[in-house]
Design goal:
With about 290 residues, the chain is an alpha/beta fold. It is built from eleven helices and nine strands. It has a single domain (about 10-270), classed as Metal-dependent hydrolases (TIM Barrel). It has helices spanning about 25-35, 55-60, 65-85, 105-115, 135-145, 150-170, 185-190, 195-210, 220, 230-240, 260-270, and strands at about 10, 40-45, 90-100, 120-125, 125-130, 130, 170-175, 210-215, 245. A hairpin with a 2-residue loop joins strand 5 and strand 6.
C-alpha cells in the first residue's frame, strides 16, 4: 500500500464554462476537488488570444471572437476569486492561468499579469510555428512538416519552452514534454543528441530558477503509458532536486484527481518526494 500523500494540483480547473474543449461548470469542478479532499489547487484556465487567426478550433466553431474570449477570461477570474473565497475553509484555490507561446504571446501574457494579478501562472507551449500541434494528429503532422521533420519540431519546442521560461519564469512549467503527444516512437527522440541536450538544458534552467515541474496525469487519461514528464527527464529532475508536483490538468468533474494515485506511485518509485512545493507568482516580467 502506498504511503499517504497530500492531494494537490498545480495545473487544473479547466471547465466548460470558460473552455470549449472542457466540460462542466467551474463551480462543480471546484466542488469535486473539495469533495475529494484536495488541500490546494491551482486554477489555470487557458489565456485568451488577441489574434483572430489563433482562435482555438472549438471556440471558433462556437462563433466566439477575440472580444468574446477576453470577456470570458475576465469572467473566469471573477468567478474563480469568488469560489476561492467561498471555499476558503475547505481548500486553498490559487487563481492563475496557463500561457501559450505563439507569435506575440509575450505582450499578451504581460498584459494579463498586469490586469488580473494572478496568484501564479503555468508556462505551456501548445503551438509550433503557430500551429496548435496538440489539437489532433493532423495538426501535429502539419507542425512537423512546417519544421522539416519530427526531430526539428522537438528541437523547436524545447527552444520555445526555454524562451518562455527565461522571459516569464512561470511558477509551474506545464507538461514538460507535451511535444511527444502524437508520436508513439517518442522514446527514440530522447536518444537524439540535439533533442536530449535541449531537454536537459531546459531542466537545468528550471532548477536554476527554482521553478516547479508539472507532473501531469492527463497523459494517462489520453491513453499514454506514462505521465508528462517522461521517465528519463523525471529521473534527471529528481536527481537534480527540481521541485515536482502533481497536476491533474482537469477538464471537467470526471477528470479531477483521476490517475493521481498511479502518478504518485510513478514519482515515488523513481525516488521522488511528495513534499509538494506550492507555487507563487514570480514577477520577473522583462
Amino acid at each position: 500500500m502506498s504511503a499517504p500523500y497530500e492531494k494537490v494540483s498545480v495545473h487544473g480547473g479547466h471547465s466548460g464554462t470558460y473552455c470549449n474543449h472542457a466540460r462542466d461548470s467551474l463551480a462543480d469542478v471546484v466542488q469535486r476537488y473539495v469533495d475529494l479532499g484536495f488541500s490546494w489547487v491551482c486554477l489555470t484556465e487557458h489565456m485568451p488570444t488577441r489574434n483572430p487567426s489563433l482562435l482555438p478550433p472549438e471556440e471558433a466553431a462556437a462563433g466566439l471572437d477575440v472580444a468574446a474570449l477576453q470577456q470570458r477570461f475576465a469572467a473566469y477570474f471573477a468567478e474563480a476569486r469568488r469560489l476561492a473565497e467561498q471555499h476558503a475553509d475547505s481548500i486553498e484555490l490559487l487563481v492563475g492561468f496557463e500561457t501559450e507561446a505563439y507569435t506575440g504571446y509575450e505582450a499578451e501574457v504581460e498584459a494579463l499579469i498586469s490586469e488580473f494579478q494572478p496568484d501564479m501562472i503555468v508556462g505551456s507551449v501548445h503551438h509550433i510555428r503557430d500551429i496548435l500541434y496538440d489539437a489532433g494528429e493532423s495538426h501535429y503532422q502539419q507542425a512537423a512538416r512546417a519544421c522539416g521533420g519530427l526531430e526539428n519540431m522537438y528541437c523547436e519546442y524545447f527552444d520555445r519552452q526555454l524562451e518562455l521560461i527565461n522571459r516569464f519564469e512561470p511558477a509551474v512549467v506545464g507538461h514538460f514534454d507535451l511535444i511527444r503527444i502524437f508520436d508513439p516512437d517518442y522514446p527514440q527522440r530522447w536518444q537524439v543528441p540535439a533533442i536530449r541536450e535541449r531537454a536537459l538544458r531546459n531542466l537545468d534552467r528550471i532548477k536554476a530558477l527554482g521553478l516547479i515541474l508539472d507532473l501531469n496525469v492527463r497523459a494517462l487519461a489520453k491513453g499514454a503509458a506514462e505521465p508528462y514528464i517522461s521517465a528519463p527527464w523525471l529521473r534527471y529532475a529528481i536527481d537534480q532536486g527540481i521541485a515536482i508536483c502533481t497536476g491533474d490538468d482537469s477538464h471537467g468533474v470526471d477528470n479531477v484527481g483521476k490517475f493521481l494515485p498511479e502518478t504518485v506511485q510513478t514519482l515515488t518509485a523513481a525516488g521522488g518526494s511528495t513534499a509538494w512545493t506550492k507555487p507563487v507568482l514570480r514577477r520577473h516580467v522583462h
